Amino acid sequence: MSGGGHFYLAVPAKAIDRLDEYQRLIDSFIYKAHGTDLAVIITGIKLSLAETAEFSETLKKLGELSEEHKNKKFSTLINTRIFFEPTRVKAESCPYCYCETKQHNKAGEHEYEFCESFAELGKQLAKYKYEEKTDIEIKHVDDVFEAFGYKLVFRNEGNPKVFVLQKTDKLDLQRCMTYISPATYMCRDEEGNLIELDEMANKSIGVKRWGVLRGDVDNLGKIFRKGLVDLLPALKCEDSSCGVLAY
């Protein structure tokens, strides 16, 4: 048994140019949740002002385009790792989605949390009169990442999905994706632990204070553009675009 629905949106013409990007994002979420059992297809065409007068012809073209895209569902994921990850099927699997069950109900029966959440949603819809969509409350920096669908997990062991936080001369792409450069220039103790400001001040010789050293270079942008020819008359250089920086 299968069913579907259609909806239409009037959007700025420039949005049509990003449909592939939107489709890829939707496919990634839908596939993680439902596998290939459910798909959302988005298609679109640009219209001139004159073409809006023949909207029935536009709907016909959109219908044909949608049918074409239905025949290549999840094509945006074909070349990605997520599409070819093996599916573990065991005796203790969900009878609906065949995913491995991870919990048991009170009767001792196996349940899959995601599928059971649909049953819980159905109960809520039948029980209450109103439903409210609330915004995610941001109380922690982790809430910001979760609002975009991510959860930060820090670990000391590599895998193909992690990012390296400490710079290294050679990246092992079997154990990481790539290197990112976070702001980790902080004072540490002998064991590598971060030192709080009060502790840093107590380590001072003399007055127990901590300070900030700031450096400034005047006209740095001009130096990069024109070099040091004007600033160092003794420097002979035929090409005024070249320069020398001394440290």
The largest pleated sheet is described as: 2 strands, antiparallel
Structural class: mainly alpha
- Envelope shape: extended
The low-pLDDT segments are: 234-247
**Sheet with the most strands: spatial strand order:** 1-2
Query: How many distinct beta strands?
Result: 4
InterPro entries: Cas10/Csm1_subtype-III-A (IPR052117), Rev_trsase/Diguanyl_cyclase (IPR043128)
Explain what the structure shows.
- The protein is mainly alpha-helical and 247 residues long.
- Among the domains are: 13-84, no CATH class; 87-129, no CATH class; 150-204, no CATH class.
- Helix content is 27%, strand content 3%.
- The chain has 6 helices and 4 strands; from the N terminus they run ααββααββαα.
- The chain has helices at residues 19-34, 55-70, 113-127, 141-147, 197-202, 220-226; strands at 103-104, 110-111, 163-164, 178-179.
- The chain has a two-stranded antiparallel ribbon. Strands 3-4 form a two-stranded parallel ribbon.
- Strand 1 (103-104) and strand 2 (110-111) form a beta hairpin.
- The protein is extended.
- The N and C termini lie far apart (74 Å).
